[in-house]
Amino acid sequence: MIVSRAISRLSIIAILFFVFFPSNISAQIAPTNTAAISGSVNDSTGRPVTGATVSLSGPKTTSTHTDVHGLFVFVGMPLGMYQISAIASGLGTAVQSLQVTGDVNVAIQYQLASQNLKTIAHVSSAVNASFNVTPASVTQVNPMANAFEGKTSWRTILEQIPGVAEAGLNTGEGAPAGYPDGPLLPMKISIDGALPYETAILLDDMPLIAGSPLDSTATTGSGPGSGTDLGYYPLNGFASADVVRGPGANAPSIVDSIGGSFMLHGPGMADMTHYDLSLSNNPYGGIVANAQAAIRLKKLSLVVTYGVNDSPGPLGGSEISPNTAIGPSTINGTPCGFPCFSESPLSSPHFASASFPRYGVQTGLLTCCLQVNTGWSQHNGSAALIYAVSPSVTAEVFYAGLSSAEASLPGQLCTTTFTPPAGYTGSIAAGTSLFSTSAENLGLIPVTQTSSLFEEKITAQLGHGMLRIQALQNRAFLTQAFTYPSSATVRLFGGACLASTPGGTGGCPAGYALTVFNGGAYTATYSSISAISRDASNNRDLLLNYATSLGDNFHAGASFVRSYYDEPYTSIFNLGFFSFTGGFPSSVSNTTNEFRIFAGGNFSEKTSLDLSMYFANANYHVQNPNDLTGNTYTDENYSYAAPRLGFVWRPTASVAVRASAGGGFAEAQLCDLVGTNGTPQPNVGGTYYTTTLSNLNLQPEKSFSFDLGSDIRLPHSTIVSFDVYRSNLYGQVYRSAAISGTYTGVDGTLPLYVTQYGNLGESRYEGILIDVRHNTPQGIFWSLSGGLTRGYVVSVPAGFYNKPGGTCVPSTGVNCQNVTVVPGINFNGTFAGSVPYSQALGTIGYRWNSEKYVDVVGTSYGNNNTYFVPAFTEFDGYIGYPLSKNTSLLVTFRNITGIYGTPFQILTQGGFSGAPTISGLPYAQYNEPYGPRAVILTANVHL
After folding, report:
1. I need a labelling partner for 376 at 20 to 30 A (CA). Which of 123, 292, 739, 742 fits?
2. What is the dihedral of CA 895, 898, 899, 902, to 10 degrees?
């Protein structure tokens, strides 16, 4: 309501907010077809230099002078290689080459006269170097610099940007192991409220798709909507990344870009040869190391990074009670009869309730104790090779990849209350609460995750324009498995029914007698029980782009991008009483073609206008839902066209007002469209059957969005930014899930749980963002930013809540489906994702120089946050200290207050929060931990 009123009163205005991270590589803002080159000039003490002459020579030659704040800007510069120079009275001249492939911030600082040096340092955190003069609202970050500060997760960067949310651990049992900041932590982001599958992730304008939507973080599982998983990409491999909000006119794509885009860039050309090394610890006592070699040999540039993240994990080699929902067949050779389970056989947390909890030792038999390894090992890195074939032609090759292995114990643990029978005298007392695993893992098999990204690019200046030809091969793999050994030596506590004559004693069935175990070692045999799931994504892109200048002030061009992906997976289950093999073949695929024409320029010194027209077509090659064999295929095509408009007004050098508006197009996920070809399958406990129906009438989502905002420079190195935005979304994809009749199969006649995807009526994302930042090279610096965001359903189709053959009665929930979709209520994680209502970030610190500083950062997560906990604020502290000319130390105090600091998720009977439904009944969502309190020491060496 607050957001709606603000939008109606302000009529839409915008804020760009920047989080500063140190970088030694030129930082690019949102890629456009001409560039805005802005920056600052400072003397050796960091004071701004007024009236300095800054010149550019290259595809376009021009010059300007710095204002009273030492600031300058060039707008509408064609892409290409430039020489930039600064001339200041009494300070001399600084000259350096500058490759412009997008908007650039440049910080020019003269060194002490005794050093006889004048340098141009590409430092995005330099004073006032982040003033935005583009139509889009852009927040720039530096993943590589964060990796060299000891950070291991994308969430560390993204959670500090109000309006940008990330999907973390998730609550599904089948999730890959996901400890906070662990390498297998799913990392799917949303921008300006849009769900992860509505948020484009791109590398140099080419869509990236990694992470199968069939894992537990997908719309088919319990987590938010599927989308590109940044967890498959190395943090140390990318020199810069841009969070582009709203419908910027120069956006490379409107596909899956409802709220905006997250654009990654590899290392640019190295200015000089240098080497960097970073060593850190992690919160669990592990080691994080990153190394970089940047080599410049005339026309050749090579930048290589390599990192290792090795950790014992939060539990190390501790002993815990394994989940043995499928109990032993024999104990010391004697057949074991029901009940010999360690817990209730009901295995799905979706059907847990206060009256029928999922977890807890139900029968009094405790298998103890399995030594588990919660550790992991990850190797990651990148290599960027750039060769200047001629002054007008550049060839580039870029590779990024990672390989992770993590013990199969998931990030979720459950608590079990031990309730042994009469006559028990073992060392574990009755009523003891113990940790137990939340998945069958008596046989531990590591979860493995690998990815490989390979890009080829040629940039050539043709006439007055620039031609880009790019190709991308992007692959990712994830394997999860568990198995029970045929026999194992275990310690047993409590009671179980073993074969006996006569039988029926102690509450056991006829032929069995209660046997009490007090902690001795026994040989247990198990049925042939195993499961393996292999997920993969194969993504190939081709991009052609040509942009040319039209005179000194205008430009035009066209681009084409073709994106193909398939996401094959196989699942093989052998649970003794039934087996199942299923999956998607690689022939199930999605291809998207997008053509764009664009034009724009500077209509005066103070105004610029950009217009783009997009034509998109998506083709799904999927199995015919009418053929349960899965042997025949059908092609489904969808087309969409939409314009985007961007406008910038610069009344003074210290004020930029921007506006953008236009359409968007979000494709339904491949798995949503396909459904399940085959017969319904029983759950592990044999209490119901499940199936997912296909819907070839499922339509892509379409949107119209706008964003208004401004950047304002104030005296004393202070910048204010603000934005207001709204996106109206038509035909949003939702998951309908309900009990629909019964089905007779291998487990008899049981309820049938049916899932199918469809389109809603109208949905909306809207919000306000504001950022005030005071940043100086020396002295006190501070920032305060925040955002209010809403995402909600406006209208639903007729009969939306009625089950087939029945009419929904909301007061009782009878005959109701889709009860978690409530119009007018902010998305709360139960429909398709979570839109945090409010976020804020505050920083205050003191800087002596770029390497010597101290600061405290407070990050506030409002209601409806992605951790499913009440609103909270988390604090981090940083101390940077130079040890010598080439070495420095960074001390990070993570989660100072220890709030929600559990290193893993604990699932308990009362461990969930309620969310609204149309029937008024609560819907369970399990809380997720933020991560433990820790002190991280990072040593950096720069040569």
Report:
1. 292
2. 100
